[in-house]
Amino acid sequence: xxxxxxxxxxxxxxxxxxxxxxxxxxxxxxxxxxxxxxxxxxxxxxxxxxxxxxxxxxxxxxxxxxxxxxxxxxxxxxxxxxxxxxxxxxxxxxxxxxxxxxxxxxxxxxxxxxxxxxxxxxxxxxxxxxxxxxxxxxxxxxxxxxxxxxxxxxxxxxxxxxxxxxxxxxxxxxxxxxxxxxxxxxxxxxxxxxxxxxxxxxxxxxxxxxxxxxxxxxxxxxxxxxxxxxxxxxxxxxxxxxxxxxxxxxxxxxxxxxxxxxxxxxxxxxxxxxxxxxxxxxxxxxxxxxxxxxxxxxxxxxxxxxxxxxxxxxxxxxxxxxxxxxxxxxxxxxxxxxxxxxxxxxxxxxxxxxxxxxxxxxxxxxxxxxxxxxxxxxxxxxxxxxxxxxxxxxxxxxxxxxxxxxxxxxxxxxxxxxxxxxxxxxxxxxxxxxxxxxxxxxxxxxxxxxxxxxxxxxxxxxxxxxxxxxxxxxxxxxxxxxxxxxxxxxxxxxxxxxxxxxxxxxxxxxxxxxxxxxxxxxxxxxxxxxxxxxxxxxxxxxxxxxxxxxxxxxxxxxxxxxxxxxxxxxxxxxxxxxxxxxxxxxxxxxxxxxxxxxxxxxxxxxxxxxxxx
Amino acid sequence: xxxxxxxxxxxxxxxxxxxxxxxxxxxxxxxxxxxxxxxxxxxxxxxxxxxxxxxxxxxxxxxxxxxxxxxxxxxxxxxxxxxxxxxxxxxxxxxxxxxxxxxxxxxxxxxxxxxxxxxxxxxxxxxxxxxxxxxxxxxxxxxxxxxxxxxxxxxxxxxxxxxxxxxxxxxxxxxxxxxxxxxxxxxxxxxxxxxxxxxxxxxxxxxxxxxxxxxxxxxxxxxxxxxxxxxxxxxxxxxxxxxxxxxxxxxxxxxxxxxxxxxxxxxxxxxxxxxxxxxxxxxxxxxxxxxxxxxxxx
Lengths: 613, 298
Description:
Chain A is mainly alpha-helical.
């Protein structure tokens, strides 16, 4: 009897433990709001809340703080970026789902023998490539590239190489540059989510439309596309959230002065940039610091509104879907809706996909051309004995932060996922609330995480690797919970039932049966988190610190109670110090390779899973 | 199938264009005949504070004003974060003008150059003699307890040793040794580590001094970091750093700590290396930063 009760105790206590894990996201969101609000209160009190929100001047020496111009700048570049990136992203997704061929094949009708041979040889080579997979990887790679790299690309190629010639003042910075860089950065988010939405539309819709005599393009744009509307809108909203919160890349191309965005080449300072530019110069405890926190608070509220509005998107649009397709304006049935527009849109989708591919290749080419010649063994692993700058300390710090973050975040994230999938009643209010908070946490911009970490963890631990790791836990928690949950959901119910049938307790079933079968999903979550940690910069600068490039040494980085820069922060400090461009490019190349390898690992894990099924 | 070929062709054409753009990165179009855009450091930086205080000119109503009295962040001006960002911007565009610590110019002479101000070269000699008027102090702030830190005091002593002064005088101006700093003998301190935090302008000097010091005193470790003068106070108060580095006069709560001036630094006005501009006046700088009045390159 005692044995049974002890199992029961274990079961119940485990359940509560999982609930606590799941509730952590709620605590985190409230913690962030409360801490940042508390830190901004002095500014709101001194300046006045409305004066702060609607003031147009930001002058540090006279303690005049108003964010209206910056708020407008953020909104305008976001809207422009979502229009540009949204159109390209959505149509790329349409292309990927419906027109991207698995295999490329060149047809040649001419009579030239050597040409025929050449085409045959090309085809044999092309048949080995799966274009759809490649496109998938392109999107994932675009998503994984650290924003600092986009910033470099933006300033050197886009601004100094291109836009400067279009700007009447020969500057090139400002609204247009920011919007282009942002749209490249939000395309992966929008494309992958739109792709999911399109793939979730039941195949009958598409087939039915074809059966009615529609062309493929008509079926896609007149039937499937409207059916996926709510998913696409959610994708765009999440894209907006990403654009609003982006810091590093924007800082490099926005210009930085406080202006209203009245023209394409007006230098601007979005909210995130304001925080990141001035945090380094701020006197702690001053009104200035509080004003920057208040900027962060305005940003946070903006992002919360955007993220929460995703929930307002109706899951299904009411009304008779396909009505318009089948009935003409006169009400009589037309079985085939004619029109050239879908055909044109189809080609537009191809162009968009090409643009995305080119954007990625341009970034990669830019990094490779500038980075590879500057690589050397000494630079990578030289350590303290190497003459020049070495990445060795940054590797160490990156490794530490990854390990510490995962040690803390994995159990918490998996615990939360277990609660959501194994214990909670699906669809219950509690679960809905937790999900909303997880989504909200995922949408918080990394610079806000940075401010929170600065206010909490950097006060507890001091600015060091631990403070950085704790901050990163919050950043990656949503990723881990979501991917683990997905993996748990894919474990067949029969496995659990069989385990119960053999007399195993719930907790035993979870740990011995469910979790092992979900292992590949958890592994994927881990790899994705590693990628997120590596590409992060804004959340780490204020928490783990930004070492001067020349003073970082292996002997200092080996002790995690010291400050340290991860690879991405290291690359940013090359830029900030303006001392060693060659090394910055080489670091970018290293980051690119790491991102690529991580993506490959995820790809192979997922392929393995597919094969097993 | 033709469509596919078309798409691929289009892709190829566009990537060629993209590569073409990149090849053009080296030269940014024509050398600007005018300086149109002013680059400042972020508000709160020591360099900016000193620059805004020192650059004075006649305002439109005829009264003499300093830049700090003016509204600077305007369409014609960029505020950028750090010294490096000023260098990046100026080096990439011939119509930009910015300012950085004189000591940071040497490391970047392949991309930017310092111009004369009021006909005076930005050199250590001219700053020392007072002919070149753009200069500010370099200060270290620390808690009283630092006076008991053997390595910290020895490092301070090193700054006024013959070797230390030689390093300092290459790009900065030395100041008189404070009484409490003892004379330096190599090898007295065998171990320990200190961290300095704050101004990016001070870091090149600290780097040179620390490396020379550590070479003479094996076993000791000196590290430094930070994004601006404003961070110095907090890092000292939290005992993260022994010394805080500020590149302006100490103010506010910083005055509650010990303050020691270690050098005087010039502020260099910089433009792209191949710019035709050689000299600017205070009035020109004032008009550019306050009103966006262009400066002709000659």
